[in-house]
Amino acid sequence: MFHFKKGLGWQACYDDERNLYTAKTSWRGDYHLYEINAEIYQRLGEPDVNSEELIRSGRHLYYSQDSPIGPPTDMVIDENYAALCPWTKIQESGNVMSTEATDLAVNLWENEETQEHRKKQKASRKKKQE
Predict the structure, then answer these.
(1) Which of 6, 33, 35, 64 is deepest in the core (most CB within 10 A)?
(2) What is d(CA 86, CA 39) in angstroms, rounded to the nearest whole number?
(3) Single pTM value for the model
(4) What is Dmax (Cα atoms) for the chain?
(5) Are strands 30-36 and 10-15 parallel, antiparallel or unpaired?
(6) pLDDT tens across 84-121, in order?
């Protein structure tokens, strides 16, 4: 069963069957999916808490951008993003960033947890190819 919290520009979900916490943020064409932990989930929506910033401290799963500055682009950080977040309608532009460009972006801009998980997925893909 899904349990939700919602605020301006964000929504979080606790899936009690999988004991999994996930969240999305969206604002003016930017759309992000994250895996978060119980502590983050509990603090969401509290007074004097920047919920969106708190969500961004979780593990980034997916990013879609549709802004007037450039072409719409999707960045798949965790290939299991849709299975992790079945509760949301995922924004997709159809223009997916290459694996190499995503690896570079993750190494430059993402938190350590996201970087480590991305490295494990990359090693797993490489192992399957061998």
Answers:
(1) 33
(2) 21
(3) 0.88
(4) 51
(5) unpaired
(6) 999 999 999 889 999 899 988 888 888 898 889 888 88
